[in-house]
Amino acid sequence: MLDSLIALALLGAPALAAPVDPDLTSLEAHHRELLSCDRLVGSWLQEDEYMAMHTAIGDSRLGLEALRPMPFDDQTFPPEAIDLTIGETTYASADLIRMTDHPAEADVREAYLTIRPHCMRLIGYF
User: Which end of the chain, N or C, is surrounded by fewer C-beta atoms within 10 Å?
Assistant: First the structure.
């Protein structure tokens, strides 16, 4: 705290703002996408796919923790948040409710034919 005040007094507020690392930004976006995949279709994955997804999420988390002091947590990306874009379709929190509470036949088809293959390609599964 004292260091921050001294830096603020000597350097001014703009000097305290850390530059955004493009690698960190892309890693955070990738991690949000992995978490979104898990939230949308994680319960519908086969055991080997589920393990591969969670291994990829763990590896991504470790990569983020190595680059930033505070790991990616629920305050950064709440459990009900979704941040996934496939083609021109953007999935959001309302889609999580639609896909998990009482999915219609069209939702199941979308999950298996669109979201699941995208997520498996994202982690390099196929």
Answer: N
Residue 7's CB is within 10 A of a number of other CB atoms, namely 13
Average pLDDT over residues 22-45: 89
The continuous run of DSSP H or E covering 81 comes out as: none
pLDDT of residue 112: 93
State how far the Cα of 30 lies from the Cα of 24, in Å rounded to an integer.
Answer: 10
Q: Is the pLDDT of residue 73 over 90?
A: no
Q: Which two tokens stand for residue 45?
A: 């994955």
Q: Per-residue pLDDT averaged across 27-56, rounded?
A: 93
Nearest to 36 by CA among 67, 71, 82, 90: 82
Q: How far, in Å, CA of 124 to CA of 22, rounded?
A: 22
pTM surpassing 0.90?
no
CA neighbours within 13 Å on the CB side: how many for 43?
8
